Each structure stands twice: as structure tokens, then as C-alpha cells.
# Entry
Amino acid sequence: MRVDGVGGPKGNLPVGTTSFIGRRAELDELSALLSASRLVTITGVGGVGKSRLALAAAARAAGRFRDGVWLVRLSAVADADLLAYTVAAAVRLVDQTTRPPLDVLVDHLADRRLLLILDTCEHLVDACADLVERLLRGAPRLTVLATSRQSLGAVGEQTLRLAPLSLDPPRPEPPPGPVGVREPGEGEAPAALSEAVQLFVARAAAVTPDFAVTAENRAQVALVCDRLEGIPLAIELAAVRTRTLTPQQILDRLEDRFVLLHRPEEGEPAGERGVPDRHQRLLTTVGWSHELCGSDERLAWARLSVFPGAFDVQAARAVCADEWLPADAVHEVLTRMVAKSLLIRNGPAGAPRYRMLDTIREYGARWLTELGQSATARQRLRDHYLRLARRGEQAWFGPDQAGWFARMTLEHENIRAALELSLGEFDDGESALDLAGTLWFFWVGAGHLAEGRRFLHRALDAATAPGAGPATTKALWVIGYISVLQGDLPLAISMLIRCRALAKVEGDERAEAYAVHRLGCAALIGDRHARAAALFAEALDRYCALGEVNSNVIMGWVELAMAAAFTGELDRATRLCEQAVALCEEYGERWAKSYALYVLAFIAFTHAEPDRAAELARECLRINHSFHDLIGIVLPIELLALCAANAGECDHAAVLQGAAGRVWKTVGTPLFGSVYFGAAHVKCLDLAQGALGPERYQDLYERGLGLALDDAVACALGTTVNPCIARHDQRKDEARAAD
# Structure
């Protein structure tokens, strides 16, 4: 699990962009429920503020959860099978094994004191209930806070039904006072304003700084909130209209709209009759806001509803821009929509991201269907992320590798949506193959091996002409590559042989080169070094003939160097790695470079240069930690453990071996089952156990086994084991005290 910083606050709670108004009693009640129960669900109508209350309660309770508070937004998840993957991604769990994702989650959370917020569960109630029950059984210190329009019905669930904000009682309009005088009603202090009115005033003042409740407008503001039934989202949408309308004008327009609630026109969809009155009033307010938007805003609103997650300006232009909404106007339209509370903006000023609340998105999607543009907008979304994936693949071999890792991580929800559209609504297996295969750098570089493999298999099954075209051969070698990294050699070899045969038939020389390369990887971790070296050499010759130069090609050099190093050809291995490092530095590539550094560290230790070996291994570790690359993390930790044992720091070595043991559980077969990859581990074990004795070694090993990934990396990068042991002991003491 990667967090914001070792020793810093853990979790992913967003920083509030607006103040939290009212709800003190509900916040206290929710805090009490979270102290007494491990599963609490906030229920209520759409727009009533369930998510905001959950975040406020989580921020208040954060100090009780040593492993952080983690928010999982579920509104974008349409497929229940992706639920566990989504939760894993949100808690930044990287697992590269073939285990079911729910099993991985349970194992990851088993010893953690953590608050998990599942936001917007109503469309996945059964799946969420099953997931929560399984997690709570397997993770005794886990607490779950859910938001949903209905309860989950899970064992042990406590519910808090969230009512609308409190309202002022109806009162006659006071006689007008001097214009601009801000004063409370007779005998009443300003603090007596209802929660609903306080929210209206706060949001109105955000767009009209001199707005305040006065003797002239208080009754109208209170009536606006009353007509909106105290629903926070509806109040916010109305309040932003104070930029151009007085409270009385807002009230008049709302009254006109609400009259229509009880007089549906002929031909109005019958399904609306069954909507609860409060939610109907919210939808009516949303509709009124829609009418007050300009035509460009309404068009953008409809088209942007296809985004399941947050999006940037570039994505918005790709989906929205045409002859009716020019590309250079999109950013300004987004800014106006933020001002009208139709979009939420976050992220740095230079790279903002935008998100729609669920109710706003639902209305926009309905309008998009009315316009007959739903399929077009969804296809634009899919095509944009296919283009983005292609750009990312090209840029992965370059100086902005880390930037693309971060960008694709932010776009994870939208990438999933693009794949699901191709596999579902569009029934376009070929495009799904293209996108899933092109994303190899994301599946591998960001540690999403299991999810990538799942999408690749689904795309192969869905392709209309399986066995034909470069997208198919690419998907086959990517599955083979992923399976090698997962230690699933039988599947890897099967897929790669199939890819090579198909590529030969179709004349796809590039795919054939990649298949040969990855067959070499399978041979390498299977300790068949002569075979591996021959396959790597063949693949590199093929790459050279094609003029192919990228991260995969450099990894071919590094893997050939590994095979040479394992068989004692250290000079040859050194030359290959030095060439790889030089090329990486020329192009600004870091990921493949890190593996070259690992091999050079292995060679340095073999040459009796342990300090140099440790220096190189630490640099390798720093790079791969930034990419969430577990294999690239665990291999240098094993080597650093050996360096520590060789220097007589056997306490440190034993803890590092335990830390590596935990990481291997999320990679797959420890050390791939390879004698050669395991040589450093075995030698370190002999040295450490010999110096410490079996019992002391095992105690320290278990302390390392208890370290979270970030703590393990910090321990490996440090020069002493004491902070690692102290953190582990503190966690154990906290657990005993809590129990």
C-alpha cells in the first residue's frame, strides 16, 4: 500500500472545497455509531448530503485509525465484478498474483486498523453487502462507513437515516428596513438561522461576496429553503443564482416549476410519478438550473455526463467540442459550470480536474438521450482514452515516465469505462483488444496485472475475428508478459507460443519479436539460462532489424545481462547494463534503468564491493517504489538484506527479509521459485541465522513481515533497523490496547 508519505497521514480523503454547514447533531450521532459499530450506512434521498457527512465524520475520526481513512467512490462502477478491483485501487493496494481480488483485499486488510468509506452503493447493494461482510470477517480491526439511498442489509449494519437540513418555521414577511441593513428578525440573534438558511447564505456569498440575510430578504430566503425541502444540493443550486437573481425572483421561479409537479403534462414519462416527493423536488430544481444555463452549458452538461470519474480539460474537449461548442470555448464553459455548482473542480490550478455529482450526472445523461447524442458522446470518450493510451505507450520511453504513470492512475475509472463500453454497449472486441493491449505499460508499470489480464482475456473472447490482426497478437504477448510476472509460466508459455505462431502466419514481425522476448523471460525465471540467452539474443536482433527502441527493448538487454550474470559472465553482463543505463539516460527512461541498476548491484556484490552494491540497490528501490513496481521493489530489498548481513548488521537483514517476504506474497511465487533469483536470500538467511540464532532471527523476521510496504521501503533505504522495529512494536501495542 502506498500512502502520501512515510510517517505522514495515511489515506486519500479529499480536502474540502466548501465549508461544512450544520449537521452537528447528525455528526455527533454518526461519530457515536462509528465508535460502537464496525459497519454504518448513511441512507437518504439523492442530494441530501450523505457523502459530505461521511467525509466530515471520517475526518473527525481519522486519529483512531492508524492505517488511514480511505474513500472509494463507487458511482462509476457499473460491473459488480470490478468492485473488489476498485476498492483495491482506492486503498493503493498493488497485487500481482493470480489470486481473486477479494482474497487479496482480505489478506491486505487483515491486520490493519482502517476506516473504509464506500460512497454511493445503491446500484451495487448486494455486491457491496457481500464484499463488506467478507472484509469484516477477515479484518477484525476494519470499520466500514457506507453511503447509499438504501441500506445494504449486511450482517451487523447500523443505519443513520439522513433527513434534509432543518428549516425556519414559516413567518410573515417583515416590514422593509433601510436598504443594505443586515439584521436578525425581532428578538432573534443571527445564530438562530436554520441550517438550511445558513447553507444558502454561505453558498450565495461564495458567488456574491456582499450577500447576507437582511430584514428585506430573510423571509424569502427561508421560503426558498422551505420549498426545496431542506435538500442541500437543491439549496446550493438555487443559492448560486443570487449572482443574477434576488431571493424573491428565485422563489417566484421555483414556485412556477413546482406547480408542474402536481400537473404532469400529457405524454410526460409515467416513471416520474413514482419518484419520492423530495427527490422529485431535487430533480425539478436541477431542471430549473438546467433551464437557466446557456445553450453551450446545457450541451456540455449533457455530454460531460458520460464521464464516470473526474476528467481534465483535454478529455472534456475531446467529448464536447464540435461546430456547436468550439474546442477553445470548452474551458470557459467548465469555469461557468463550476460557478453554478454543476461541476466540482479540484487538483492544482495548472492541471484542474472536474467531477459531476451523481444527481447532476443522471440529469445530464437523461438530456443527452433526449438529444440523441448518447452513443456519439460515449464513442468519443472511448476514442479519447484509446488515443491517450497510445500517447502514454509512446511517452513511457522518455523523460516524463513518472508523469504518465500519475496521469494514467488518475484516469483509471475512465479507462475502465472505455474498456467496458467496447466490450458491452459497442460490442467492439477489436477496439477492446487494441486498448487493453496498448495499456500494457499501465498494467505492468502501475502494478495492475490481475485487472489487465482480466480485460485482455475478455477482449480476446469478445473479438469478432479472433486470431486475426495486430491487436490480437499484441494482446497475446501482453497476456504472456503479465503471466510471466505473476509466475504463471504454463499460461505464459501457452499464450506466447500461440502469439509467435499467429504472428508468423500473419507476417507480424513486431509481435513475433515480443513473443520471443517474453519466452526468454519465462526461461530466465525457470533457471534455463542458456535457452533464455538464446531467446533474448534473437529478440534483440529482431528489434534491431525493426528499428524498435523502447523500454521493452532495453529490458531485453537487461534480462540478457541477468542470464549472463547468473552463469558467471560478469564482464559481459556489466557491458550490457552499462549500455542500457546510457541509453536510458539519453532518453530520460527510469523504469528499465532501475532493473539495470539491480543487475549492476548484484555484480558489485559478487565482486566484493558491498557498499557499491547497496548504493545501486537503493537507487533501484527508490525508482521502483515511485512506480508501485513490486518486483522492482522486492528484488533490491533482498539484495540490501544480504549487504546488511555481510556487514554484520544481521538484525537489519532479518527484518528486511521479513519485509521482502510480505511483498512476495503480493507478487506470487517467492523469488519465482528460482535458485538463482533466490541465491541472495539463501546466503543472507545463512549469515543472519548463524549470527542471531533461529529464535532471534525468526522474531526479527516476523517484525519485518508486519511492516507495511512504505515502512518496509523506508527501512531498506535507512541505515538502521531500530525505527522499523519501533514502528512494528508500536502497532502491536496499539492493537493490544484496542483489543
Remarks:
- The first strand starts at residue 39 and ends at 43.
